Amino acid sequence: MKPASLEALREGGKRALAQALAAIETHAGQAELAAFLDQACRDARGATLGLTGPPGVGKSTLTHVLVQRWRARGETVGVVAVDPSSRRTGGALLGDRARISTDPADRGVFVRSMAARDRLGGLSDQTVAAMVVMRAVFDRVLIESVGIGQSEADVAMVADTVVLCIQPGSGDSLQFMKAGVMELPDVIVVTKADMGTAARRAKADVEGALTLVAREPDAWVAPVVLISAATGDGLDGLTEAIAGHRRWLGAERLAERRHAQEAQWIEEAVRTRFGTAGLAAARAIAPEAAGPFAREQAMTAALDRLLAQAEPH
Fold first, then answer.
1. Pairing with 173, which of 32, 79, 162, 296 sits 20 to 30 Å away (CA)?
2. Is 177 helix (H, G, I), strand (E, B) or coil?
3. What angle do CA 260, 142, 203 make, to 5 degrees?
4. Is the pLDDT score of 67 beyond 60?
5. If we measure between CA atoms, which residue out of 15, 8, 14, 12 comes closest to residue 36?
6. Measured between alpha carbons, how far is 29 from 10 in angstroms, rounded to an integer?
7. In the predicted model, is pLDDT for residue 121 greater than 60?
8. Distance separating alpha carbons of residues 226 and 199, to the nearest angstrom
9. 189 CB contacts (<8 Å, ≥6 apart)?
């Protein structure tokens, strides 16, 4: 089905959005879809939050709490919950929507599960496109990734602000001290604050690890927030940390981050289809691919042209 215009999508509610996301997942009407995604990319309205961390850390519970708080303030919310995949069917295995309770009649919130399939970076291949569409419709977009390991950081490709969750007493705080991992998050959350001493120790460990990260003088330093989604403790601090990062980004840094993400989307799309060697060949064909293409008003259409050029003849 051909995706609706953005105006129709904003007026059409959940049914229209579900149809647009179905078109993305099935690649229906490729040319119309590319034009639609470019329009959505140009007309970004919402702030995007990426929520990541190891399995069992409480990401879905925190997602539920954040959605409820945003809706209580009158903000509209779109959620993409990326689930582990069934090896047999390729579909979502756990269905994290079961832990994100929303009112079906509430037109201001929409939750979509997507299967990660064989992607290792914590996201589905369709997550970028789904985020772009939701960002053009909602005030807030939350991307909840599959539980990640130390090297899986795709969530940074779709989020204005990345929140990394770690759990006390699990060894996560030590694992995340490793090089590269502490450069990923903009906010770090230590969950299950009701565990008391173990939670406070984990927070102290992470704060110590952050002092070892080399940064530019004006770089953002991720705050570490101790929370309990079950009791509500620390949630005001988390809300302020997210808002603080948004203020620090401002218009200029936000635009730079999104341009860099768009360049990554192009590279990942080529690499996914043709591999690393194919990406190198595409760069030889169009050396400007990660530059002007990422800044064009029609980014998705430009990507389609690049992929067509890179196809073997």
1. 79
2. coil
3. 90
4. yes
5. 8
6. 20
7. no
8. 7
9. 53, 62, 163, 164, 165, 166, 224, 225, 226, 227, 238
Measured distance between the N- and C-terminal CA atoms of the chain, rounded to whole angstroms: 30
> With helix as H, strand as E and coil as C, how does 63-100 read?
HHHHHHHHHHCCCCEEEEEEECECCCCCCECCCHHHHC
Total Cβ atoms within 10 A of residue 194: 13
CB 64 within 8 A of CB 101: yes
Average pLDDT over residues 67-91: 78
Q: DSSP assignment, residue 296?
A: S
82 φ, ψ (degrees, to nearest 5) = -90, 120
Mind listing the pLDDT tens digit for each residue in 208-246? 888 877 778 888 999 999 999 888 899 999 999 999 999
CB-based contacts of 172, cutoff 8 Å, min separation 6? 53, 54, 57, 166, 202
Q: Give the gyration radius of the chain's Cα atoms.
A: 19
Measured between alpha carbons, how far is 155 from 169 in angstroms, rounded to an integer?
25
pLDDT in tens, 254-274: 999 998 888 888 777 777 666
Q: How many residues make up the chain in this entry?
A: 313
Residue-wise pLDDT for 170-191, tens only, equals 665 556 555 556 778 999 999 8
Confidence (pLDDT) at 134: 94
Q: What is the pTM of this model?
A: 0.83
Strand order, beta sheet including 161-166: 109-115, 77-83, 140-144, 47-52, 161-166, 187-190, 224-226
Whether 97 shows a pLDDT value over 80: the answer reads: no
Mean local confidence (pLDDT), 275-298: 56
User: Helix, strand, or coil here: 211?
Assistant: coil
Confidence class of residue 277 from pLDDT cuts 50, 70 and 90? low
* Tokens describing residue 165: 């969750």
Whole-angstrom distance, CA of residue 308 vs CA of residue 22: 24
Q: Is 55:147 a contact under the CB 8 Å cutoff?
A: yes
